[in-house]
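WARN retry 2 of 3 for item q-0093 after timeout on previous attempt; input resubmitted unchanged.
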Amino acid sequence: MGVVILLAGCEPAEQGPSNEAESAQMQMTDPSEFVEALVILKEGVDGECCQSWFGKQGFQAIPMRAGFLIAGTRAQFDKTFGPEGDVRSKRHKLPVPQELDEFIAEIARREPPNYNRKQ
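OK item q-0093 returned
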């Protein structure tokens, strides 16, 4: 696993959605259409450029210890990761975008919690 090094004084990375319409659309999205993935950074990478890149693709990017979490709709994941990253498949590993290959060790899809599910 990669290690995240956060530098003091860095401004937060741009985080999507970029406009009010996209934000409203994301909030009204059916929970079954909402997808999350954990982005694990390579050792020594602070990840701000990666978070900004995902923000520009319309994802929310939330810093975490091992990297950051990206969240978005299935359509955003399909557009960004293509057929190899189909979130409907049983695979949990997503392909690393070529532009970010030198920074990211792994991207792993995770199922968001469902707090409305009956036990």
